[in-house]
């Protein structure tokens, strides 16, 4: 698992892990039937290592915020894992236990099962998509700078009465970190539920 985790989800191939371990890829296929099974195992180990919150009777919004922050840290720390999470969902007992814990917090707080499932899905989808956007932006920094400068040029060339507060909004947006944007969105989502 350590070799697979070092390679990261994006660089994770059966051959790369086999090479890192000094074994044949056939030996690795004896333990994992596919790349997806290997990735799932890496995600399981990652989930087990993550400091996800326990249910201590706290307010559901506080718990979900702590859960979302933990999930984001795990995904950011393992580039490419957000894409796997988006396409696979919970695929192991460890991941299912984590979902059950979240659903338990929500139902304890008065959500019916459907509301709990929808809330869990909304929050986790927000976390996963936020991390995927961060990863895309990190890969395209140069392109993003070019887009940002063209946007700034377009703003400078427009009369104030046509754009209103957009110039100030653009400055604020450009100055916000990924963490700030994530927390703002998460808080807006959690305030709007229930």
Task: State the domain count.
Answer: 1
What is the CATH-assigned architecture?
Orthogonal Bundle
Based on CA atoms alone, the radius of gyration comes out at 21 Å
Oligomer state of the chains in this structure: single chain
Secondary structure class reads mainly alpha
Query: What is the CATH class designation?
Result: Mainly Alpha
Order of helices and strands: HHHHHHHHHHHH
CATH fold type: Tetracycline Repressor, domain 2
Number of helices: 12
* Helix content, binned percent: over 70%
Structure notes:
With 194 residues, this protein is mainly alpha-helical. It has a single domain, classed as Orthogonal Bundle (Tetracycline Repressor, domain 2), CATH 1.10.357. Helix content is 77%, strand content 0%. The protein has helices at residues 2-7, 14-21, 25-31, 35-49, 60-77, 81-88, 93-108, 113-139, 141-156, 160-163, 166-175, 178-192.
